[in-house]
Structures are given as C-alpha cells and as structure tokens.
Design the sequence.
C-alpha cells in the first residue's frame, strides 16, 4: 500500500475487542487493528464501547452485548436482534459516511453489507463462520467489484459456495504476531487444550482421549456454556486433568511453551483454527480431529489426525504427535501464517475494491474525469 489509509474496522460487538480474548473473532479484530496501525494506517474501531481504549473507538454499543443479552448455546436473548438492528442501523451511516477510504467488516450484521452495496463505497467483509441461513443470502446478494469477502481457508470457501466460488470471495489465512508466541525447543510431558468451553469445541472428547493416552491435560478458555461445563467437564477434573480459566496472551504463551502438544477437537466445520497456529508457533505438534479446515491449517508434518469425534483414534494421534520435532510446526507457522503475510494480502484486496469504487465514480460522474 503506497499511502496510509483511513480505515473503518467493524467488529462483532458480542465481546470486547480486548485481552483476554473470548474467541478468534475478537483476537482477529484486535490484532488486525494493531497491525494496520503499525503500518501507519488511521484505524477507527467500530466495536463494543468497553473494548481496549488503546484504539480509537466509535462504539456500536456502550458495552458488549453478551453482558446484558447473553447468547446461550444456539438460543439468543429474545431482545438481542432488536438491540443489534438499532445499533447497526445508527452506525452504518457513520461507517459509510465517505470519511473512510475502506471499510473492513468483521461483523455479522446484514446492515453493513447492504450499505456497502447501496453506496458502492469500498468494503471488505471477512467471514469467520460457516454459512448459515440468516446471512448467506445477504453475502451473496451484496458481492460486487466494490464489496469483496474473505474467508480463512479454501475449505471455508467450499462450505460457503460449493464448487461455484464467486471471484469476489478470496482466501486470506488468519495470521499471528510471531513475537507474541515465542518458540520453545522443549516442553513438559502434558497436553494443552484451549478454546471456548462449549460442546462444539469438544473439550469433553479431548479429556477422554488424554485419559486413554495416559497423558495429563490442562484446559483453558472462556466458559461459554456453563451447564455443559458443570455436567461434562467439571466431573472429569482431577487426576491430571485441570482447568485454568481464561488467560491473557502472554500467560497463554507461557503455557503453550511448557506443553508437549496441543489437542484440537472441533466438532463442527471448523473454518480455520487460530489456536492451532498459535500453538504451532510455540513449537507444539497437534493431535486433532480431521474436521473442516484443520488439515489445511496444520499440514501433514505438524500434526496427526483422527476421524471426527473418534476418541480412540485421537489417543493414537496423541502418541504419534509426541514424536514430531518441535521445529517443524514452528517453521510452518512462520511460512504460512504470519501477521505480516495476512496484512499484505488484505492491503492488496483493499486496493482492488478502492480502485473499482473510483472507476465506478468516474463512470457515474464523467465531468469529474474531464475536469481532471
């Protein structure tokens, strides 16, 4: 990118864009904002008002919505959609005011994409989730030369579009700041599991596989589903199985460096798997269910795999993964998933939609071209 840009970065306001991160979407928005700012871009973060004050924040809501309108499993609070429609309905005019060179949309709300189509202003929407009915049609109908979407993996692109992938849907792998995840050439004799504590992340299966493989396991992550934790995780704690809560990035990095390997147990069509990249950067091989984009991210040399929800197979994968040299996953993370590589790719796409918007503007205003 030849010049600094004014960027509106729209985040999903379920949680604050602040450490400790509740999930991958929050981590992505945080590190993307910080990385763009480090390159000299002027970033305004449209997010929950209780996000990290180090950013310039234009609040979508005064505080993150999960505090007052919790989303339990698949059941949103009955007032939530009204609250979000009101918030995004007011914010879309600020986001697409013409003040910004580019809008980078990390939210899931339809109003942002619809406003991108209506105005023809340059916009990139990053999709971090598999397709679901409430949003799939909106994404499809708003694609244009001035509104592109990015997905985090080739597998996610197929999930969204099948074999008819539109040219406006582009793969940008999530990236991490390698400096935040120092490499450790040796670790302990225990496994680690990190993520949201909810059924579709599979921590109960990680525990079962660790016990079968006779390896201790430390779990960390946000308690998204308290009932699930109380019924299926808490009774398994003890005798080498521990839960350490939610950790800040530096503390989680320390835990990564001390572990022998990562257990990664998605029970859904995982679009990417940021925690696997962070673990690999730290030097951890991965034992994982072969689900979604997992193999695309981890690769053949950095991990070992089991069929989805196959506890016995995962216990075998654990034992095999322990033999992987820790430099192998680190080198893969450096080569494919650095923060710099991700932002380079985004800047190219920004340029594409900005140029298309300028061409459209000149076509609609031919006198502007003559005056130039």
Sequence:
């Amino acid at each position: 990118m030849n010049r600094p840009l004014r960027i509106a970065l729209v985040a999903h306001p379920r949680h604050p864009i602040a450490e400790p991160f509740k999930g991958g979407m929050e981590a992505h928005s945080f590190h993307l904002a910080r990385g763009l700012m480090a390159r000299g871009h002027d970033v305004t973060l449209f997010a929950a008002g209780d996000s990290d004050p180090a950013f310039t924040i234009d609040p979508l809501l005064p505080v993150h919505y999960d505090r007052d309108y919790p989303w339990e499993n698949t059941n949103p609070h009955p007032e939530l959609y009204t609250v979000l429609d009101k918030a995004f309905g007011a914010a879309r005019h600020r986001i697409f005011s013409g003040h910004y060179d580019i809008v980078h949309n990390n939210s899931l709300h339809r109003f942002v994409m619809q406003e991108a189509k209506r105005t023809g202003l340059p916009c990139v929407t990053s999709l971090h989730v598999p397709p679901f009915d409430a949003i799939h049609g909106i994404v499809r109908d708003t694609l244009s030369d001035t509104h592109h979407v990015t997905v985090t993996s080739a597998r996610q692109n197929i999930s969204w579009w099948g074999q008819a992938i539109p040219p406006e849907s582009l793969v940008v792998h999530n990236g991490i700041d390698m400096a935040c995840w120092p490499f450790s050439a040796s670790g302990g004799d225990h496994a680690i599991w990190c993520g949201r504590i909810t059924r579709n992340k599979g921590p109960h299966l990680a525990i079962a596989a660790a016990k079968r493989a006779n390896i201790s396991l430390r779990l960390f992550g946000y308690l998204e589903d308290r009932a699930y934790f109380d019924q299926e995780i808490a009774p398994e704690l003890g005798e080498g199985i521990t839960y350490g809560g939610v950790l800040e990035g530096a503390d989680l990095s320390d835990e990564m460096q001390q572990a022998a390997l990562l257990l990664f147990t998605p029970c859904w069509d995982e679009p990417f798997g940021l925690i696997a990249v962070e673990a690999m950067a730290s030097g951890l091989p991965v034992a994982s269910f072969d689900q979604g984009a997992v193999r695309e991210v981890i690769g053949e040399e950095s991990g070992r795999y089991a069929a989805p929800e196959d506890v016995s197979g995962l216990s075998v994968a654990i034992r095999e993964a322990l033999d992987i040299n820790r430099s192998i996953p680190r080198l893969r993370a450096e080569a494919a998933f650095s923060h710099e590589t991700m932002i380079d790719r985004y800047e190219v796409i920004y340029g594409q939609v900005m140029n298309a918007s300028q061409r459209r503007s000149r076509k609609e205003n031919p006198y502007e071209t003559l005056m130039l």
